[in-house]
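Problem 12. The chain below contains 918 residues. Write out its predicted structure in C-alpha cell notation.
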Amino acid sequence: MRPFFLVLLLSLLTAGAQAQDKVVLQLKHIHQFQFAGYYAAIEKGYYRDAGLEVELAESTDGTEPERAVLSGRAQYGVGSSALLLSRLSGKPFVVLGVIFQHSPYVLAMRQQEPNPDIRSIIGKRVMIGTLNDEMSQADELLAYLKKEGITPDRLIRREHSFNPDDLVSGKVDAMSIYLTNEPDYLDRVGFPYDIYNPRSSGIDFYGDNLFTSEQELASHPDRVKAFRAASLKGWQYAMSHQEEIADLILNKYSRRNDRLHLLYEARQMVPLVQPVLVEIGYMNPDRWQHIADIYTDLGLLPKGVSFSGFLYNTESGSQLVWLYRVAGAAGLLLLAGAAIHFTLLARERSRAQEAIRLGERRFRTMFESAPMGIALVDSRTGRFADINPRYAEIAGRAVDEIRNGTWMDVVDPEDVALIVPQMKEFAERALPGFKTTARLVRPDGTRVWVEASITPVEAGSAGGPSMHLCMIEDVTDQKKTEALIWQQANFDTLTQLPNRRMFLDRLQHDILKSRRDGTRIAILFIDLDHFKEVNDTLGHHQGDVLLVDAARRISACVRESDTVARLGGDEFTVILPDLDEVDRVETIAQNIIDSLLMPFSLGQEQAFVSASIGITLYPDDAGSMEDLLKHADQAMYAAKGAGRNRFSYFTPALQVAALNRMRLTNDLRGALKGEQLRLYFQPIVHLKTGHIRKAEALLRWEHPQRGMVSPLEFIPLAEASGLIVDIGQWVFQEAVRWAQRWRQDVHPEFQVSVNQSPLEFQREGASYENWLRYLQQQSLSGQALVVEITEGLLLDASSAVTDKLLQLRDAGIQVALDDFGTGYSSLSYLKKFDIDYLKIDRSFTRNLAPDSSDMALSDAIIVMAHKLELEVIAEGVETPEQRELLAAAGCDYGQGYLFARPMPAADFDLMLRQQRAA
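Solution.
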C-alpha cells in the first residue's frame, strides 16, 4: 500500500503547484443575487481549490452567453431553457447543471378586480422578449399564451425596455418580468399588479442553466468537472448564507440594488431553486423532454427529436473503459494464476482475511477517534446501531443511553418537526442525502447546535436505504458568533432596541402587510427635548443612563407587536401597525410624553426632559417608506417649533413649509454672490448730548422675487445650513468699511456694533484671527467695533467661549450683552468676563412709567452696571417720555424709533453728515 500512498501524495503536491486555469463565466444579466452561487464560489475559494481563476462577465442581453461561449470569449455561460433550441439548431452546447428548477419568467399586468383574466391581454400593449428575436427570453411565455388561445398577432408588441416604470406609468399594459426582481420595485412604489405564471398551465421550464461547449468538454474534461463541482458548491453555500452573500455583492460587485432588494431576491429564489428538496445542479431528462414537447407544439422543433449529448454526464466514459480493461487484465491474470499456482489460493485467502481484519481494526480506530461525531442509524426506526465517543460527547449523554433510544430523543422537538419530512423522503429514496442544522438537547436542558450530514450506507431489499451514517459537528460557538453579529447589526448596543437597519426592515414588512390587509400604520418620531443640556452638565455616562431609561418608558407605552427603535442620539421611533382607531395613536403619544416628563434618577442627581413627537400615517400621508419618514420628521420639528413637550400630526402645510425652507435655503446660498445682502444701520444716541457716536449694523436680505426677507426667517436657516459663517464674515467686513469711513468723516471714536450668532460664536475651531488680520490690513483699531452677544453664551461658558472673549479684549474690541434682563438670573458672568455694555431689552423700555416695576428694574440695572464700570444702552426707545426717564436714571445711550429706524448705509451716512453740518 505504501507506493500507492506515495504516488497519491506526489500527485496532490504536483496538482497544488500547478498554476490556476483562467476561465470566463458569461452571466446573462448584470450583477445581482441571481448569480449568488458564483460569487460564493469565488469568495469561499472553491474555484481556487479546484485550480481555477474565474472571471465573471456581466451582460444586458440574455443571449450574450451563447454568443460568448460560441466565439470562445467565455468558456462557460448561464442560459435559459432556450439552450435546447440552440443545441438542436447545430450549436454545440452542453448543459452542466440546472440552478433554477422552475423558471422565474412571468407576466405582470395592472391589477384587475375582482377576477384576473389572462385573456384581457388581447389587443393590449405588451413587452415580451425582443422584437428582432421572437423567441429570445420569451419562448415559455409565448407558449403559455398560445395554450390560453392567445397568439402573438393578437398583441400589440413593444420593444422590451426592461424598465418596470413603463408598466407603472401606463406606457404598456403588460410586460414579462423576473418573479425574483421587478415585484419588489412594484411593491415599493405601491403599484397594484397581477402575476400570470406559465406553470399554472403546465408549462414548467428550467431557469438559469450552467452550460459550456463541446470543445471545452473535449479539450478540458477535468476542468469542466472541477468547474461544475465548485460552482454547485458555491450555490449550496449562497442559498444557506443569504445575508452574507448580499453584503458581498454590495461590497465587491454592484450597488445598483440596495440590500433589502437583494434579500428579497434571495427569498424569492428559494422556491425556484429548491435547495432543500433537490440537489442543486440536478436535471431530469424527462423535464427536458417536456420542454422539447412544448417547443414542438410551438412549431419550433420536429416531433421525436433527439438531444443526445446535450446533458452533461457526470460519469467519465474513459474511466469506465480503463476499469473494464483493468478488470479484463486482472481476470486473465487470475485465470493464469489459478492454472499455475492453484495451491497458493488458500494461503492468499488467509492473507486477505487477515488484511480485512486489519482494515476493520483500522476503521474502528478511525471511527472511535474521529474529531466529529459519527453514528450509524436505522433509517426506518431511527434507532442507533453504533456511535463513536465524540457523538456522545457532543450530545452530553452516555453511549448506552443514546443506543437505547432514537435520534428523535436527542434532537430539539422543534427541529425534529423540520427533519422528519426530509427523513421520510430519504427513506423513500426521493432524497439521496442531505445536510441540516439542528439543536441537540442535553440532559441538563442546554442546547448544542450541530451541523449534521446524512448519507446512505446500504440498500435494503425494498430498494430504500436501510441504514444511514449521521456525522455531526458542534457549531454552537459559530452560532453564538453569528447571533452576536446579527444582534450588533440590527440592534442598538446601548438600549437593545432595534436600530435604524432593523427599523427600516420592519417598516417595509408592515407596509407590505398593510397593503395586503388594507390596514393603517402610524409612525411616531420622538426627540428628547433638552437632552444636550443633561449630557453637557452631567456627562455622557449619565446621558446614556437616561437614554436606557427613556427606551424602557417608551416601550412600556406600546404593545409587544409594535416596534420601538432608536435611530441614534436622542431620537426614537415607534411603528404602530394594524391600527383600528386613529384615536389610539394620540393616547399612546400622550402616554409617552407623560412618562418622559417624570424625573430621571441619575446617580445623586435628577434630570428632567420632555419629548417632541411627530406623527404620520400610512397610507394617508404617503405611499413610500422614504416619504413617511420625511413627513414624520417634519411633524416632529413642528412640535418643537410649537413649544416642545407635545405631539404634532403631519399635514400638507408642513410639507409646503419644508419646501419653502429648502427653497429659501437654496436661494440664500446664492445671496452673497448675487449681492442681495444689505447692511442697515440704526443710530445709538448719547442721551445727555443727543450726539450719534455709535450705530448697530443690522443684516437685511433683498430677495429678487420675494423682496425683503425678515431676518427672523432667514437667520435660522443660515445657522442650520452653516451659511452663517460666510455671512458673518461679510457683515464684519462691511461694518469695518463703514466704521473706517465714519471715524474719518464724523468722529474719530465712532463705533459700529455687529451681532454675532451663538452658533457662530461657539463653533469649534473658530477664532477671530481673520477679523484681526482684516482690521490690521485696513489700519483700523479694534476700538471701532463692538460685538453683541447674548447672555446664554456666558452661562457655564466653555473654554472655547472664554478664549474668544479674551481674544476680543486683547484686540481692543468691546463686547455688549444684548437683550439683558430677559435671560438667565445668574449675574456671576458679569464679574467673570470683560463686558463693556449692557443693552436693556425693549420689553422693559416699552412700559416705562414713573414708579412702575419696569422703571425700578431699569434703575437697578443701570446702577449695577455703573458700579461694575459698564455703560448701558436702552433698546426700543420710542417716546420722549421714555428718553427722559432713562436719562434721569443715568442711562448712557438710547436706541429706537424715536431717533431713527434702521436704514440703508447710504441714508445713514447722509444723516450723519447732516448732523455734523448742524
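Discussion. The chain is about 45% helix and 20% strand. Students who got a different answer should revisit the alignment rule from Section 12.3.
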